[in-house]
Amino acid sequence: MSSSSAFRSRAATPAYSLATTPSGRRSRVASSIGASEGHQVVCAVSEARGITPSVGLAFVNVSTGQAVLSQIRDNQSYVKTTHKLAVFEPSCILIVSTACAPNPKSDLCSTIEEELPDVPMVPLNRKYWSEMTGLEYIQDLAFKKDVQSIKVATDGNPDAICAFSAAIRYLELDSCIRIASHSLRVRYQPSEESMMISLPTIRALELIQNLQIPASKACLFGLLNQTATPMGARMLRSNILQPSTQAEGVLKPRFDAVDELCTKEDMFYKIRKALKEFGDVEKLLTKLIILPAEPSLEASEQAINYILMIKRFVTAIPLLFASLESAQSTLLSRIRGNCGPEISSPILEQIQEYINDDVTYSTKPLDLRNQRCFAIRSEIQGLLDVARTTYKEATDDMHEHVYALNTELGLAAELRYENKRRYWLRFRCSDFENGIIPGTLVNCVRKKQFLECQTLQMVKLNQRMTDSVDEIIIQSDSIVQQLLDSIRRDIPGLFRVCESVALLDMLAAFAQAVTTRDYVKPDMKDVLALKAGRHPILDAFIPNDYYGSNQYAFQIVTGCNMSGKSTYIRAIALLQVMAQIGCFVPAQYASFPIIHSLFSRTSIDDSIEHNMSTFSVEMREMAFILQNTDNHSLAIIDELGRGTSTRDGLSIAIAMAEALVQNNALVFFATHFTELAHVLEDRPGVLNLHLATETIVADDEVPKMTMLYKVGAGPVKEEHYGVNLAKAIGFPQRFLSVAELVAKSLREIAETKKKSSGSSKLARRRKLVLNLHETLQQAYNANMDDRTLRSYLKRLQSEFITLMEGIESGSGDGEEEEGEGSSRQVSEVGDDGEEGQENEDEASEGAMSTGSSIS
C-alpha cells in the first residue's frame, strides 16, 4: 500500500517547539549552540544490534521541508551521534520504547539524556521502525529525480531507512502532518564527509554564540554572518558546526568562488543586490508541500498569500541569473545553471496568466487584503467580479462616512485599519471640548493622548466588507488551488534554486569579510603552517606564526599570566574551522591539513546538575578526548590539572600528555607547569613554545611587565612571573615580601634536595661518564702525537676524578658539565618516587618555617 493512502485528515499542528522544553525552559542545546529559529525538527534514532555501535538517524525539518538521513559507525561514547543531534537541534527525539525501559535502559538512550537533557524523548513501538515502509516513503515523498540516487546512497544502511520510517509515521499519525507526494527534500549525509566537533568545544570556542553576552556578535558565526537571506545564515551555521573534510570536491571550489567574488567587484555588488530580493523561500515552499486536511477560509487566504510570495520569488531569480553572467569559477557557474530561465519562466508565465501584473505581496494589513482581493485577473469568473464590485462600493461608503463625520463634528479623525478591528478612527483627546465624547462614537479606547473608536455605521460597513472579502476568497480559491497544484510540480527545481541561493549568499558573506579585512586564501595540504596568523574575532591581537606536522604534532605553550596563551591556541582552532568551511583566513600565508575531529578542554566550569566539580568535569572531558583522538584530530588543551593539587595536577598533565603524544593527534597544550616542558622536550613530535614577556625591574620600583603576545621557541624562562605580576597590580608590599622569600626558600630547598638525592647523583654520574666517552672519542679521532695525547689524557683523568668526587660529596662540583639537566634526568628522578616525595615534603616544611619566621 502506498504511504500517501495512510495520511490522516486532520489539521497540521506542530507537536513541539524547538527553542523551549515542555516546561517552558529554554533548551540548553539551543542556548549553547545558537538558538534556532523555532523550527520543528523531528528526529528518529535507530540503533543496530551488535558489538560495534551503528546508529541510524533521520531528521525531518517540517519548517523547511527537508529530511536528512545518516548512519553512523560510532564508538561506545556515541560522540558522533550526540554531535549530529546537537547540530540539527531536534524538537523531539523518537526512540524505540524498549530502549527507554528503565531495566535495562540502553547506553544510547542514557547518553542522549545526559548530553541533551532538555530535548524531550518520545518512546514509540518498534513497529514504527520498518525498512520496507521507509523505502515506500522515499519512493512516494522524495523528488522523482532523486529517488534512485537516495536508494543507492542508503543501500546497506537499513537503520537510517528505519529511522526515516519512524519519523514520517510519527508526523502522520501523531502530529497529523500531511506532505504532498514527491515534494520532500530527502538526502543521505555520510558522517565521514564532515568534521566532528565535540559539544564542549562548540561552547568553549564560541563558534555560534558568545558565552558572556549571548546577543553579542563576538563569535565566529557573528563574525561571518553577513548574509542577506535567512537561508544563507542557516547554511553558514550548519557549515560552522559541520565543516567539510572534502578538499577537492567542496573546499577548493569554494575558495575559487570566493576568490572570484573578491576580484570582480561589479559582479559582487550585483549579486549582493540581487540576494536582497529573496526572503525565507525555503519556509514558503515548505508551506506549499504541507497540505491542509480540510478546506477553510483561512487556508484559502493563505493560499493567495503564497501565490503572491512565489511571484516575488520567481521574479527575483532572473536578476540573480543575470548578476552571475561573468562568473568563471566552477561553483558559481553551477549556481547560475540552477537559476536559469528554464526554471523561473514557466512558473512566472503560469502566474501571469491568472494574476494581475501589478499585484505584489505586502506586509501591511490593508494593502495585503486589497492585494488578495484584486490578485486574480478580471473577467475570469463572473461571481468574483461581482464580489469585488460590492467590496469597492463598501470601501467608498466607508470613506464617505468618515468625511461626513469629520464635517459634522468639526474634527479631523484619522482612518486606520488592522486585522482584528478592521477600520477604526483615531482622535486627539485635546480636540474634544471639556473632554466630552460625542454619543455617536462607540467602542472607545483611550491610549495616551489619543482616542480610538468606531461608529455604528462603521461597524456595519466593516461587516459588509468582510462578507465581500470572504466571498472573493471563496470564488478565487478554485483558481488559486489549480495554480498551486501546477507550482507543486516544479517544487524540486525551486528547492534547488533555494539551495543555490543559500550557498551563494554564504560565499558572498565570505567575500564581504575578505574585502573588509586582510584575509588570505588557504592551501589544503598535510602541514599546518601560518605566517602572521591572527585571531579572527580578536583581530587586534598580535599576529603569530604557527607550524604543525608529524614531526611537531604536540606543542607545549608556556608563558606568564595574561601573556596570551589561551588566545594563541584558540586562534588555531577557529582558523581551522574557517578554512574547512571554505572561507579565507586572517594571515599572510596559510596552509591547513584536513582535520576530521576537533576537541578542546579550555573552560573552568563545574556541573552543578551532575554534582561534579571543576576537576571532575575536566577529567571526564579529558577521558573523552583521549578515547576519540587520532592522527586526524586537532585538540587544544588549556591549563590541564589546575583544579587539584599542584603535585597531582602535574602528574596527571604529564600522563595525559604522554597519551596524546602516542595518539599522534595535533595538540596545542597551554600550561603553567614548566616541568612538563622539560619532561617531554626530548620526546619525538614535541615542540616547546612560550609567549614572550618583557619585565623591567628597577631598584625600589614596581616591576614593569609588558606582554609582547609573540610566540618564541623553548619553554618560558621568566622566573617568579606570578609574584612580579602581583607587584605590577599593586599588592601591599608586606605580602609581596613574604611571597618572595617563601618562593626563594622553596627553590633553594628543592635545589639542595635535588643535588643531594641519590637519583640526582646517579643521573649526574651517568652524564659525566657520557661526556667522558664523547671526549675520548674526539681524542681518538684527533691527529695528536703521542706526547700531546698523553698529556691531554692525564689532564682529562684529573678533571674527571675531581668532578666525580664533587658529585659524591654533594659539594655542587660538576654543575658546569651537568648543565640545567635534561628530560632523561627528570625521568630518572621520577623513578625514585618515595625519595622525591620525601624531598618535596621537607621543602614544604622549610618554606612554612621560613614564612612563619618572616611573619
From TrEMBL:
Transmembrane segments: none annotated. GO terms for cellular component: nucleus. Residues 805-855 are annotated as: Disordered. Residues 633-649 form the DNA mismatch repair proteins mutS family domain. Residues 829-844 have a biased composition (Acidic residues). PROSITE patterns: DNA_MISMATCH_REPAIR_2 (PS00486). GO terms for biological process: mismatch repair; reciprocal meiotic recombination. PANTHER family: DNA MISMATCH REPAIR PROTEIN MUTS FAMILY MEMBER (PTHR11361), MUTS PROTEIN HOMOLOG 4 (PTHR11361:SF21). Heterodimer consisting of MSH2-MSH3 (MutS beta). Forms a ternary complex with MutL alpha (MLH1-PMS1). This is DNA mismatch repair protein MSH3.
